[in-house]
Amino acid sequence: MKCPHCLESYHDFYEVILVGNDTNGNWGIISRKCPSCDRIILALGNGKITSVGGRHSFEFIKEERLIYPRSQSRVPLSKDIPEEFAQEYREACSILADSSRASAAISRRCLFRLLREKAHVKSSNLANAIQEVIDSGNLPPYLAETINDVKKISNFAAHPIKSERTGEVVDIEPGEADWNLDVLESLFNFYFVQPAIIRKKREILNLKLKETDRKGTKKPNA
After folding, report:
1. Residue 180's beta-bridge partner residues?
2. Full-prediction pTM beyond 0.70?
3. Per-residue pLDDT tens for 99-117?
């Protein structure tokens, strides 16, 4: 999990305060505490709650909505990222607290389009597109592993609709919406930010080389 306060990652451990149940199932307040910043994180969860020894826990979660803090902090995007991708990313971030399912649908769609346009994959669904870009060997190992985790966390095998119709709003796994955004940030850095940094450094180097050549060809004073 990633702390919505300080953005540090930590192993998920939570307690559930039972609220009640209705036709949608059990409702509970999920309480976590970040070991890095020592701040409380609260979310409203809906699913199936079980009790063992007086301690409540979710057997499965259909939906989890962050209620404190109101929304998760995200690192500001670089201006080098094209607006069509940045806009979708910001939209997915803005609705994360209200609907993690809708946020995940937008980020999946953005991820698929990014792979089609920048990695030039030909696959018609997200799972195959991810495997195609991994098999191409064009991603550094850490990033290939990161994007492969999208398939694991999203559980495409059990929910193929996520892969086949990326923008569909469907049930998601815990942490799935946040991980999609993390993966997009990493890919944005790889495809847009780092190349832009290298281009700027090369431009500065070329200017220095031109200046050196200009001084080297200047005629000495008589």
Report:
1. none
2. no
3. 889 999 999 999 999 999 9
